Protein 1
Amino acid sequence: MDPVDVQGQSQSSSQSQGEVCSSLRERSISENSLVALLQGMQGHVTTVELRDEGWAQGRLQNVDAFMNLRMRDVLYRGHNMGHTSKLQDLFITGRNIRFVHIPDHMDVLQTIQTQLQRIHRVRTFNREGGGGGRREYCPKKK
Amino acid sequence: MRLILCSNSMADEVEQQPSTNTVEEPLDLIRLSLDERIYVKMRNDRELRGRLHAYDQHLNMILGDVEETVTTVEIDDETYEELYKSTKRNIPMLFVRGDGVVLVAPPLRVG
């Protein structure tokens, strides 16, 4: 399966860095797995190595809970290509990822915590509607 | 500080290292290897050796100071001899997707 085909398996819409997916299901998946780190890396330039031996180097535009990626300004080399192509926009299905290189300057722990805080903020924002907001989980007893 | 993303609770805050140190399930064995150097066998004849910084229930991992070894077998056309070649490279910090991981172990010692 060619990893660059667009697959409609997730509902994530295009979001700028810092915005959290509005789907409850995706938020739950992200906050319980290391995908949160990749989501925190949105906006950074990275190299993604694919399952089929190709790689793509560019700016992570959006990562969803299933690790599907959108990248911008990408240098892409497929497994059977001897040359690299420059692509403005690239979608990679999560299943086709083998590795993601993490930039040296990135603090892994801080990135994950920041992303978890963003998810938490979205959840509490929903609850603050005077009790009329949708409750996502039982209130914590203080 | 260790960051553990728990799969059995809706964590609304980062949880510190759990107070229990007993090994209850196989993933706990990996927890024992946090911050240690480990050996990871992956699909497609790949091996990684690096320091385990983080993992999750899918075995997605973050490894630091990684050495990746790719092993290929070439067969001589005439003698049908098997020639094993390995290619290595180093990566400072790597996110590994869990579905490629076959096994996780302490680094192999020679002899």
Note: Residues 6-17 of chain B have pLDDT under 50 and may be disordered.
Protein 2
Amino acid sequence: MSIVTVQLGQCGNQIGFEVFDALLRDSHSSHGLCCKRENEAYQASCKERFFSEEENGVPIARAVLVDMEPKVINQTLSKAAQSGRWKYGQHACFCQKQGSGNNWAYGYSVHGPRHEESIMNLIRKEVEKCDSFSGFFIIMSMAGGTGSGIGAFVTQNLQDQYSNSLKMNQIIWPYGTGEVIVQNYNSILTLSHLYRSSDALLVHENDAVHKICAKLMNIKQISFSDINQVLAHQLGSVFQPTYSAESSFHYRRNPLGDLMEHLVPHPEFKMLSVRNVPHMSENSLAYSTFTWAGLLKHLRQMLISNAKMEEGIDWHVRPPSSGLPSLGKMSLNKDLHFNTSIANLVILRGKDVQSADVEGFKDPALYTSWLEPVNAFNVWKTQRAFSKYEKSAVLVSNSQFLVKPLDMIVGKAWNMFASKAYIHQYTKFGIEEEDFLDSFTSLEQVVASYCNL
Amino acid sequence: MTQSVVVQVGQCGNQIGCCFWDLALREHAAVNQKGIYDEAISSFFRNVDTRVVGDGGSISKGKICSLKARAVLIDMEEGVVNEILQGPLRDVFDTKQLITDISGSGNNWAVGHRVFGSLYQDQILEKLRKSAEHCDCLQCFFIIHSMGGGTGSGLGTFLLKMLEDEFPEVYRFVTSIYPSGEDDVITSPYNSVLAMKELNEHADCVLPIDNQSLFDIISKIDLMVNSGKLGTTVKPKSLVTSSSGALKTRPKKPFDAMNNIVANLLLNLTSSARFEGSLNMDLNEISMNLVPFPQLHYLVSSLTPLYTLTDVNIPPRRLDQMFSDAFSKDHQLLRADPKRSLYLACALMVRGNVQISDLRRNIERLKPSLQFVSWNQEGWKTSLCSIPPVGHSHSLLALANNTCVKPTFMELKERFMRLYKKKAHLHHYLQVEGMEESCFTEAVSSLSALIQEYNQLDATKNMPVQDLPRLSVAM
């Protein structure tokens, strides 16, 4: 089944390019560590999901590019064409002349309705190209005006017009110290709206990815390209074909559906995050060897201690021993807090993957009480290696990972809102103080729900 | 992509404007080697086929035929504009873009605003409409003028109301040259305060600059270059004041170096909107992020580096120095010390081979020495544009919405009051039809109200930042 990607704004389009590039490069790589037939099946599955084919054989990404000003889309289209390996559809983009000015209200209330028909038409055309349609993957940032505002608007439209299809939003959480001054306002408006209309929010934090580039990849002068490539690597390791657990004869047909089914059991809890091991520069990779036991041990501790990457993991954090009363309400200030999960999915790729032991993830102490661990935890194993890593593991988690960042954003936005700063820029375009209050209320609810796990 | 129109008013405005257009042409020539008329150039220039008579000559794509500036030149004396039209930039403008008179405004805001305002209202409107029609998507008017004289100050601010009424959706960015303390125009305080009221009410964003600061910056550069400390390692083209390498050589005029700094400011301000980069910043984002309340729209600017050494690979240390300098009071284009005052918001617009990690490292490094208002503790807006300015490998423009503008306004008010108390020169203004004393009292009270806003913010400066109680939700 195919996934249609909608790339919105500068961030969405820059990332979208890296994702498609990473997916295709991996699928054509010769380091798959598997037999030719296996590789071909992998390639075919990847292609079906993310690309359609042209007569001359050049894959065309199943994507719609949207931005309110032309520079980034032009760059993205030409970068893809230059790669020679794939490209974007000729008529797959929608562009205007003047951007959204970092104004969520402008994106949502002005640009959205104004261009609704054109954008939805493009999306429809892309969906019609799919023989069998799995759902939407929407890539956007929260901090700006287009990705956030139009992203929220489009997702709502998708919910109305494609109520039977799944929608996963890939959201970029901005750096804590500003990229955009009104980023906290834009973020809370985006998140509160998406919570109602999206099926799952897959979050990547710029700060976290930046640290991965600095500490794990050893990049000295980190550019957005570097950051986006790390992101693309993480997404690729989630979305590339995997075997279904039941039968190991063919790749999973419905990636989005399977992800949602396992990870989002309750609509109040939609925030997912991704952690992967190992992740390092190519130079280091050449000198490293891994065992599944080692990788999984680290990944499990990253989950428990809320670590964002494989360095600086706090090994003191332990799950509560069973038999003792539960820790009760999560305090946002506690350092040694243990990260409770609702559901986890681990995807393993590479050599000897069948021997990997994931028992550690089935410990009931890791989870809330309302799902049996057998339902809360799933593992997908695929022999075909991913992107030059002989063994790689990725964890997609619905847990308390994002509570603290969310709480911080809500807090900062609230402080700013109390002074009424910048509000006139939003009311100018129809977003009133009431709307802000509604957003605050929804998000406080989400924070409280996750805290009480 | 969008277009902008520059409206240059008065002697100062036109002289700066002239430098600006020269620099803009140089910048585009350096970037656009193939001579194709692209979207970046179109933001400030039209492509015109000069063989076609009349107005129908606009060409939207293909090779550059003849570039015409999207500008309207206004002066009530002929001297400056005539010089421009006889100088090397004459082909960039045409007579249809000019409005001139002979007598001048006599350093009298009332003459500029009321007499010439009403006299030339229709003509000005017509030229503005024409320039707007030539734009596919007009985003911004850049007004350049001085505050202390008569034309730039009076007629320049008369324009603002007209623009607001006629083109409400288009931004109005005003570059205003404020008079220094030792200004030789006696009535400059009157002119400036009367103009301030208009800026308060009708401008979206104002970039206040004063001559003294520009002069100090030039002195600094001259000192460094001539002291021999740097030897031959300074690239002459890289001086932010330099017009060397100009496409058309012009005789150097006394204010040239100072005007070049302002020209650089305007180009850097618009660079991220015109050229590509990994983190773009459009002009509408400036207003959105830097203006938390409509009245507080005065932005103090600083440009670094002032010169580039010939090292091709800039070590991070030097890059970091560029960031430090942006916050030093010696690099501000207004007499102000942002470090000692309160930041409401700050924008860093970087050009050249600088990446997000450099930006972040420096923000982290400099943050502790800066004071931000309690509700905007991380009030940074950043942008990364890949194309550096001509002659540089990288540059930084910092825009600060900071209470350090307050002293400038307070001094202005003081100088105004000294004159007004004695009613000195008042009759020159009152004899203009429509001018009454109430115009003066209203203007000064508008200024006082603005100063009061800044006072209130300053009062919060050293208070501990408290998190406000949040909404509590029933579970």
Note: Chain B touches chain A through 49 residues (CB under 8 Å).
Protein 3
Amino acid sequence: MSERRCSEDDDRSSLISRLGSDSPRPRMKYGGMFCSVEGAFENKTLNFESFSPQTQRRRAARPQPQITNHPDPHSMSLDCGRKPEYPERTHADTGRTCRLQKVKVLAGDRLIIKGGKIVNDDQSFYADVYVEDGTIKQIGENLIIPSCVKTVDAYGQLVIPGGVDANTNLHAPQRGMNPTDDFYQGTRAALSGGTTTIMDHVLVEPGASLLTAFDQWREAAEEKSCCDFSLHLDITRWHEGLCEELEILIKDQGVNSFLFFMAYKDKYQSSDSQLYEAFGVLRDLGAIAQIHAENGDIIDEEQKKLLFLGITGPEGHILSHPEEVETEAVYRAVTIAKQTNCPLYVTKVMSKSAAEVIAKARKKGIVVYGEPITASLATDGSHYWSKDWPTAAAFVMSPPLNRDPSTPQYLTSLLACGDLQVTSSAHASFSTAQKAVGKDDFTLIPEGTNGIEERMSVVWDRAVSTGKMDENEFVAVTSTNAAKLFNIYPRKGRIAVGSDADIVIWNPKETRTVSAKTHNLMVEVNILEGLEFRGVASVVISGGRVVLEDGKLNVTKGSGRFISRKAFPDTVYKRIRARSKMAEARGVPRGNYDGPVHDVISVPKLVPPTPTTRGPTCPKTQASLRNLHQSGFTLAGNQVDDHIPRRSAQKIVAPPGGRSNITSLS
Amino acid sequence: MSDCRREWNREDELPVYLAGPIATGPNQRKSYGMFSSVEGAFDSKTIDFDNYAVGRKGSRTPRSGSRERVLDSGDPAGKTSSEGREGSLTDSPGEAEDVRPGVVVRYPSGMESSNGESERLLIKGGRVVNDDQSIYADVYIEDGLIKQVGENLVVPAGVKVIEANGRMVIPGGIDVNTCLMKSHLGTQPADDFLQGTKAALAGGTTMIIDHVTPEPGQSLLEAFERWQEAADKKACCDYSLHVDVPQWDETVKEELELLVQDKGINSFQVYMAYKDLYQLSDSQLYEAFSFLKQLGAVALVHAENGDVIAQEQTKILRMGITGPEGHALSRPEELEAEAVFRAITLGNRVNCPVYITKVMSKSAADTIAQARRRGCVVFGEPITASLVTDGSHYWNKNWAKAAAYVTSPPLSTDPTTPDHLNTLLASGDLQVVGSAHCAYSTSQKAIGREDFTLIPEGTNGVEERMAFVWDKAAAMGKMDENQFVAVTSTNAAKIFNLYPRKGRIAVGSDADVVIWDPDSSKIISAKLQQSASEYNIFEGVECRGGPALVLSQGRVVYEEGQLQAQQGAGRFIPRKHFPDYAYQRIKIRDQAKSKQGVTRGMYDGPVHDVFATPKYVTPSPSAKTSPTSHQPPPIRNLHQSNFSLSGAQADDFVPRRSGHRIVAPPGGRSNITNLG
């Protein structure tokens, strides 16, 4: 552990030093050493309710897991040194086959996860976890728990918060075709890969109502989803009239993130002006602006050119979406976000240069976050040239996978050092038959790749088992960071008392080989076909229920709840708030300029055609009034005295009304 | 001697006038063994430049036919055909030209007119500084051309001799960015072509390239002709013109083609700022760049994000800030850097050389430097103002002073900017120094006294340009004298295809020569300047270095503070397209980068039905707006499995993968659909 952490950046080292470098050692059963760690943990988790307002509201109906609830036998929280009130645990057996005492309790299972190493984004420690009613009730050693609880054995494995996939498209149609994996299939696959919360994109067609689309998505997801979900809204046509709906969505519906497109010209694309306006509104409402960053204008032109050249296959997709087009748009989006002081979240970082722009912008202090996806972390764009059309078409997505084979490694490195923050899947799968709509024209191929199931394994294999990041970072990029950014922390993204019981028992030793034959998706081509990944979710608990165990998925359709997210996430908006106070521009108090003013010739053609945009609030220049202060010379045409320097001619030495010091230039 | 022989072999390629002096020159030189090695290197560089510089040969040919002096033929009839210039010459005859010690004898040549315009000059004892090397040599000038460079030249008797006394003899400066006729709301700049070029000459600049700025809707060609007419009448030094493209449509294309092919224009400026006025969208820029590349022109870009600026201006005016500080506030540095980045991206996509005018901030300059490191063909031009001063003056309490600094992109508020830009200039990351000279009087600036967006934009700088580059970079030890020549003259000449006619002291080049005095020092003041504007933004700044003597077209126009410019003496210098310096790499990349598709068999597997409505078949814009809903496709595809995606199915728990797999499609199985 200590060796791995050497590569961490400095600000983390202080955090880590508190842990000591001895976490992998066999745990100390009773002793001072563990107590101190335990105490630190307690402080972090017990009172988080007080600082995160949104959890209180949502939990009102549930028993509060606070210290004051001691008399409640089911929601016991750990208190250091307190003696067990319950005589003895009845299920002390510790074999790997211990999931016997399956007691059907009222709503959720009662579970105890024993023997695992709990890994949060800040620290790892050995402790048992007791889950009841879909929440984590106790963490610690020798927990006092009721009898008849199911025991999940996690010896030698990691107990991590369930993954949060911040970008899926399970319901958004493209060209009228629904994705092959809908909310049911998609969330099922997510759970099998260790992801217990998804955030799906609501694609609002231009001109449609945001609220209607939101309701439609939420209904579909509540009906089918097997895991908790939340929703982003994709705004495809910005206009002032949307402000009202935005406010309702943010304040009442629990949506705090909105995606804008800089690509898809004439379809979804927003202009810089629109982005500027929209970002300003989102900042005032406390939401996060997400951006699909590609220069749609260039892409459009390139597509025309390539089709003209007769390139119609999937390779045309990548040729028309070159890397720099992505980079340029990221740069522009960052600039506009900086200008409007709005937090920006760049979805689908696919190339090295785009990632670099984000990293540099962060170094300049701009509040921007970058999200590489499963595909960009695991594979590259060479497949677009595959001779097999269905294979090549399966990789089509925007921005496309990068041709540079070192891209995945580079992105994982940036992920490890914190320059990129969140991994997601951007899962949008279309069957080969659907992709084949574009068999004669690559611009018609529906865009999207799979990745919802493989995401956690890919990150573990590419980053953790190669030694780039440690297990805590792993938890951060797969779960905690997303939860923090989108304001569902610490309900999600942390193993802590009071958090939702979305828990994954991660087996870092096991490997799995991805194949379309064995995956849990509907789509027939898996872009990661044949790749082997170390690190597998062996047990997945979603909402307190075991959904994956022994390789068996046991999901319940419609069990997923909608997770509403409050505005003004602290992680994002603390800095934004402070800056908006600082960044007030002030004018210079001056006396009125009372010197001569040149006449503006009132020739209509020389006046800008649309003067409203250039000088919006002020009346047009005094074209009709003659200025008596002006000297008599006119600039039109040749003058007899052209060879004489005219400097002094324009200087009004003694203007009528007395000389003013404002016009004195010497 | 082998050198000399080589030269003689080329005699047939060289103009007649070159053959004689060169043949005799090296004979005399033999006694100086040590120096001759340098001399030889120099000779081989300069003698055969006609051979490799296509721009020169090409640019000479049209000139001889039209309005330029015919040099190659020496035909007196050709000379009389230069109509505009001839007339103005007679207007101002017989300027006194001699205060320097030395012999001045008019040579009674038959082919020379008697107006004393052309003279024979020998610059003795100077150090000739080009962008690649410095040598001690004399320069002999005749007929407005450099005829000999070397030691112990054999010159006709009775030439005027200028003693340089060891000072630098450099090619005259080229100011690639002036706006001497750019109207703002109908008012013309205070400095027109006469004032502006006089100021240029006084500062050691012997050529300007002015921006033709037609208003949207106006004909580019007409505007170009207006500019040319005005400049022919007034300009005192050679000039060329950039043409600004205020809008993009089909008619513009034809005019551009005409301008490139017939008028000798190879650079066009496009705007990314000035929303709803000049601004082009990314699509238009893409098209414009593609077209300019086909024509072989250089795309000049005014890089600022106009959309965001328009928004910021609205916001700032709404906040009640109407003074010049609003100009700086509404155009922050980031917007410049962003637009530069976008322009480079577009240029790289199209594979068109991009030239960023007016680099005003560190971040924009860094963006250019990084792009060059990636191999993009991009050039950056800082201007006098950005190399010397910063944007703190926008907050000046004196409105008139603050307004004088208004230019776009604005001067950066970061006081370290000038230093940084000078460093990049010295290291070659930025290439050319312009002035963006566009001087408006205070009363003109006062049009915007209640609204900063109406203040005419532009600062002075044409006169101070060379001196400040010397002061800020060369005198500080950042760059050497050769780099100084490169950034003030040679690079510009190369990029815009004037080289080696301009931008070099070499045999056959135009006699635009400056004797530079690095030790002189002056304090800039509006009282002492040639420009007609009443405020100088460098007021009170002390500046080392300056021209001691300026030769334009072989005539002494500035000497010891005395300006003897001649109105209308300036010639229009046409520029051929496809400048080598910008286009060599572009051409090779075009060949190397050709795109090829993958040859595949036809996909004959199942195809999902799309709606019969045309909206999803074509990517036309109208189609993309319609909302999609979840109707089932009207036509059923027989290849498709019978499951529907809408709603829950009874068999949801069964993996459906195999449902899509066509094991035996009608027509036989094809390996193309085999996904195994």
Note: The longest strand of chain A covers residues 503-513.
Protein 4
Amino acid sequence: MSLFGEVPQATPVAVFKLSNDFKEDANPKKVNLGVGAYRTDEGQPWVLPVVKKVEKIIVADNSLNHEYLAILGLPEFRSSASKIALGEDSPAIQENRVGAVQCLGGTGALKMGAEFLRRWYNGNDNTKTPVYVSAPTWENHNAVFANAGFEDIRPYKYWDAEKRGLDLDGFLGDLESAPKHSIFVLHACAHNPTGTDPTHVEWMQVAEVMKRRKLFVFFDSAYQGFASGCLDKDAWAVRYFVTQGFEMFCAQSFSKNFGLYNERVGNLTIVARDSDNLKRVLSQMEKIVRVTWSNPPSQGARLVAITLNTPELFAEWKDNVKSMADRVLLMRASLQAKLQALETPGTWDHITQQIGMFSFTGLNPKQVEYMIKERSIYLMASGRINMCGLTTKNIDYVAESIHETVVNVQ
Amino acid sequence: MRQTCNSDGGVGSTENVKARGITIFSIFVDTPTAAPNPETKLLADFKKDTHLSKVYLAGREYLNEEGQTSVSPLIGKIMQQICTDPTLCPEYPSSVGLPEFTRRATELVLGRDCHAIVENRVLGVQTVGCTGAVRLGAELLKHWYNVRGVWCGPVYLSSPCDDSLAGIFEAAGIQDVRRYRYWDTEQRGVCVQKMMEDLEMAPEQSVIVLSASAHCPTGSDLSQKHWRLLTQLMVRCRFFPFFLLPAQGLCHGDFEQDAWPVRLCASLGMELLCAQSFSHSFGLYGERVGHLLCVLKQSSTLLAVQSQAEKQVRALWSRPSVGGARVVATVLSNPAHHVEWQEGVKSMVERGILVRERLREKLRLLGCPGSWDHLIQQGGLYCCTGLNVQQVEFLEKRRHIYLHPNGCLNVSAINSRNLDYVAESIHLALTSVF
């Protein structure tokens, strides 16, 4: 009798299933707009030139060893990564109240933050503290917080399907009515999956309510640099909250902006009131890391640290990031222009107003099904497309397909 | 330094705070300082120690004769090749890791023609080191061991064991962690009888964590005869074995022999988990190359269990990092590389045996009390000297030699330059401290 005999099949992750279906589609015109990674105009993954360069530097450096990193990770990675999020001249950094934990990608950073909060925030081991994630959000947010023991994970209003934009009133309303000390997971920029970010003024309003109601700020920053092409611009919200005196967590991922998807390079930046509190928090983080992965992997962090700490390489990296962001912006502009030229019913301004990798097209599930079945264009049931899946070669086909779909399917 | 709340209890901006002379509670104010990791503290003390002859014997890495960690030229060459390989894709790997890696890691433990593999009832998951493998295994057990009932332990660990193990199971939500007696200080070996006694008392469906070979931290293992007795007991009592195999090949210099207990259980049709690491055998510590092996009774459950494992991984670290696993997979899939690598591991083992023999001989010549046969009977990276807490403290404070508080040490950290000093110090500890 197998002890695992009654283990049920877990529900497949939608985006992986989509990729599989795409793979098996024989249509030569097929387009995968569900992929979660950057693609070049040739539809290929891209190793950033600066990454190739730094890899060679690392391999040639005989002084580097393969020993365990410290439990909290590579120090020069942690500090330079936090500087990227908060700004080189952040007062919080100068006041020695910023620390970090090197983690396995953005997921690992969220995980560490969630585990800490469950143990030590709002009482000890308080699994009832509500955790709010945006509606919609990256589907793994739920799993990470649930797995860390939180029992009450709720949506906060975010996307207004009719308006095709931010439901600010709904968002602010949920902030006002949330129990005090609730945890809110905020997307630092390039909201996944909607591509819709609050404006500066809107962020200020969010911050005001969160401050007044003592809500915990947990930023998820997976696309810094990728959204506007400018690192500082993309970090505006995070930095604003710091100036407002918040103590907070920021889970950073370097998967997208370094193209290091498979080296799992992440950082949990911690902003505390002072260095004493920070020290205690970091001591508890160490304990949590020790029983999860013990020490984080060295390669990716080393690569990022060398890049961020070497001026020429840092400049080159920023260029590489900008070129990825620029291609996305170009595809947005092209798609919108083509839809307008085709006089596709509806407004399509949201395509260029949204930011980052993803766009919520506004296509409904029936229309999405049509796109997949009749046109072999794969996108999420939510209508989300990854702009990186568009190329100069397929954009006409995609635009025509959207047009045909909107006209024929309601 | 406690800080007081301002009148509206709000969180003010830094400038405001300073201007108004108001100080505010941190939301982290109630977070206590965690007790320092004992290993970290020991290493920090060693680093501060200015004594010229100081020796650190409490590390977790294999050190060569020069006292350094190293990778073989083969590994170095392969890393270069990988770095310049244009076909390699910077994509997300699957949650269960690189297929070539998991396939080879599985074959290494079970043997390529293991029935379980042929019958397609083995799941392999690439993990973040051995810790990641244990954590994932613990999460799987917590969630899925006995779907009908709510299983929350117990899990049995050897006494002593790696000091992070209990915490890993607890972090996965399994609070009921118990010990079975394992190391007998007087006999300086495994107290098999006491171990069996303790396990006979364990409730059905207990999970027993077992070291397949090169037990950490004692270096003392069960004989094959005792493994047979133990597995009979486990089958009879319906226990679930969770093997630890962090250094396959580094105990006997023989990969089959080091995995023998796992193969025995698999051949008996048992279900089991096995946490593996390639840190020591490849010298790739920082890369965190681990693997969780899961042997099931029926192939019909494989896909479901895999889907649940993927789900757990996504909530832990989403996907593993590929760099180190690529190197390992490259070596293990190439017969010539494989042989060269195995030879390298064998020479590490030979050096370890030599150190043990020379240490024992030196202690004998010094007239050190007690028997030191256990030094050469043990295998792998670690060795338990049998020194008590006071004697270990003496070594640290008076001789600047750092051991684990339980008297265990890392054999590879002993070399021709420090062997005499270490031996003399042990002798001194035994003859002046009781």
Note: The CA atoms of residues 97 and 241 of chain B lie 24 Å apart.
